[in-house]
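FAQ
Q: What does a multi-component entry look like?
A: The components come first, one per line:
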Amino acid sequence: MTAAVEQASEFDRGTAVTPSAGHPSVYDAVLDGGWRIGGGINGGLLLAVAANALRQELAPANGHTDPLSISAYYVSPARQGAAEIRTEAIRSGRTVTTGAATMLQRDEDGKPVERLRVLASYGDLDKAVGEVRTSATPPQLPPPDQCVSSRLAPPDFLDQAALLERLDLRLDPRSVGWALGEPSGEGRIQGWLRLADGREPDPLMLLLAVDALPPVTFDLGLFGWTPTLELTVHLRSRPAPGWLRVVHSTRNLAGGFLEEDAEVWDSAGRLVAQSRQLAVVPRPA
Amino acid sequence: MTAAVEQASEFDRGTAVTPSAGHPSVYDAVLDGGWRIGGGINGGLLLAVAANALRQELAPANGHTDPLSISAYYVSPARQGAAEIRTEAIRSGRTVTTGAATMLQRDEDGKPVERLRVLASYGDLDKAVGEVRTSATPPQLPPPDQCVSSRLAPPDFLDQAALLERLDLRLDPRSVGWALGEPSGEGRIQGWLRLADGREPDPLMLLLAVDALPPVTFDLGLFGWTPTLELTVHLRSRPAPGWLRVVHSTRNLAGGFLEEDAEVWDSAGRLVAQSRQLAVVPRPA
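Then the predicted structure of the entire assembly, as tokens:
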């Protein structure tokens, strides 16, 4: 790892990729156990690693550095340790470049096992100009110091959630009833989010932000983790520095699956990211 | 084309695929101009063709016939005529099988040109059992015979929209102000949908249904077509026979792009499909 990366933020170290010597379009990464949550490496962080590799592969052609849309299908649980991202440029256009990526790890016999498969269309968010007619409204939250820090979670919970040490997550008091035995039943969790070490948000960090809150199923009184099958994120604006506001919600928990929608609003009041994931409803313990 | 397909419905003929002789995992299709809308072949129909090929490739392993989640990145505009779908099985699991597909057509020199790239996780919707806690509510619509048939659109519009002859689409009178010079500005269009020849809905038909209504931008007073960059559909239940209710909505038209959400409700009141696409805002004429 270069000296520059060593001094970089936790998020930049966690998503760093290096071209694999002798293997064009392949990048190496190390998945750090500090991004663990719910028994696996956080899905948004995995997506950010793959997105960083894709950016390095695709951006030189036309300067398309930002995923406007990116979709990940989670194939098998990633483990901490070495990972390899194989990238493919599908089409380079004037405003949009589309590509694919697969993240692999090696099993005990050195055989490659796929962790996730990604498709994305990259562009330049600085060129995403045009009137803003957003009719969605940001969540109304008490100030961060009046919200509930995720660091207050019980120690046995935090032991399984190393991710939370890298986030400064402050949940709306109305969104934490589930932690006190009284889930609201509404299927909504919201709060303030920034990285614990103060690194400002940028497009790749938004890919972590959409998957950083507790599972919305907690607010429905369903505990246990909700494995993600698929996650698609739309990045709509380069985020301003400062706190993000994040809302997770679900409206269709049925048949053993649920969709979880996330919205991320920046400090300038822009809806900078929207995502939806399809996840599996936790089985009763 | 087999006799069985010739007698089949328009949708089944339009989505028929045959294994390509001598090319394992490759399927041939013919894109029919009768599915044209807005200067191209309807994106939902293209997705259904690719999904049919993927189903034929993936289902034999574990009986996973239904796309639980499917994502398409649209790379270049498809034309009527021959098309080829190359499929790949990524991972066959007990409950979910994941695969990829690419749809290609040949240019004048016979060179393959990619039209769309697809990722999907297939399962068996008959096994998607578990309590239904859907909090979303279906649209309240006047009966179909009191809604506005898309066949009433002006002839010059219908000329560019052959798709509409294959659909029986009845729009909520509150959703057609834009056709009368008075867009509501809300960014919502809803109505009843079924196939014109009476073929009942099934999972593949839902992939068409989520992309079958007029662009929601019409309701914002923005005319012109909205090319789709990416479309992800979650299929949540096998639809009951009969009319579908479809709602399209947008909340974040900004910076030259918009997200368009679709919900499809079946005659039994289930939310059978949810989708989101990222599309380009039409430039003023």
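Q: Is there any commentary attached?
A: Sometimes. For this entry: Chain B has a mean pLDDT of 94.
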